[in-house]
């Protein structure tokens, strides 16, 4: 599946929906990721062949735009780059697609859900590319300190990943209207408070998501 939405906590192919009104449309463009998170759905979720987010091949920009052309963008409430992998592994393609979607519908909100490690992946600052194309960047904070973050994400960039992710969030603020750091509620109140302090210091929003098995 390249374009999908979430329904009753399941990944659903857009093509199988009766109505797309107010749909949050997710773009699944890569399965690559520099992390191996202990909680990653890629390791835990069993999916049927027709609803799988495992890609046989990464779709090209043309293939993704052809998928979008099957629908009326006015029906969508949001487009989210997300999926079974880190979307910013393909930052140039994300930017190209977001730019094309904005040409067709300027007010379509576009979000990236990311681990925030794109600047380590690409060894350059990618955040200026977001300007005028991306409305929301939602970054997985996961934990209140570098040690716990590393234990959870097992990032191939090692212990420095936590600080790099925070630096990325700070840089995004110059180019993106809404920058969010997210955690899941099961980390507990104390850690959520420490995460809130990190967000306050960065002047970004903390989103506490309910944990779903
Ligand atoms: S960053 Fe996301 S895609 Fe990558 S391993 Fe962690 S949960 Fe999975």
UniProtKB/TrEMBL annotation:
Gene3D superfamilies xrefs: Aldolase class I (3.20.20.70)
Recorded coiled-coil stretches: none
Keywords from the UniProt entry: 4Fe-4S, Iron, Iron-sulfur, Metal-binding, S-adenosyl-L-methionine
GO MF annotation list: 4 iron, 4 sulfur cluster binding; catalytic activity; metal ion binding
Pfam families: Radical_SAM
Superkingdom assignment: Bacteria
PROSITE patterns tied to this protein: RADICAL_SAM
Protein biosynthesis among keywords: no
SUPFAM superfamilies the record matches: Radical SAM enzymes (SSF102114)
Domain Radical SAM core: 19-213
Name of the featured protein: Radical SAM enzyme (TIGR04100 family)
Source organism per UniProt: Longibaculum muris
């Amino acid at each position: 599946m390249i374009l999908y939405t979430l329904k009753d906590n399941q990944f659903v192919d857009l093509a199988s929906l009766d109505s797309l009104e107010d749909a949050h449309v997710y773009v699944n463009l890569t399965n690559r990721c520099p992390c191996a998170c202990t909680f990653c759905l890629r390791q835990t979720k069993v999916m049927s062949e027709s609803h799988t987010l495992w890609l046989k091949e990464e779709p090209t920009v043309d293939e993704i735009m052809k998928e979008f052309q099957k629908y009326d963008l006015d029906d969508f409430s949001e487009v989210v780059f997300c999926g079974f992998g880190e979307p910013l592994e393909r930052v140039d393609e994300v930017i190209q697609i977001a730019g094309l979607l904005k040409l067709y519908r300027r007010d379509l909100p576009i979000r990236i859900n990311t681990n925030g490690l794109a600047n380590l992946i690409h060894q350059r600052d990618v955040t200026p590319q977001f300007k005028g194309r991306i409305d929301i960047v939602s970054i997985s904070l996961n934990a209140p300190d570098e040690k716990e973050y590393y234990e959870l994400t097992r990032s191939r960039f090692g212990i420095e990943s936590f600080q790099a992710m925070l630096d990325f969030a700070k840089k995004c603020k110059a180019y993106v209207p809404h920058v969010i750091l997210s955690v899941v509620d099961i980390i507990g109140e104390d850690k959520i408070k420490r995460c809130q302090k990190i967000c306050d210091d960065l002047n970004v929003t903390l989103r506490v998501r309910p944990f779903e098995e």
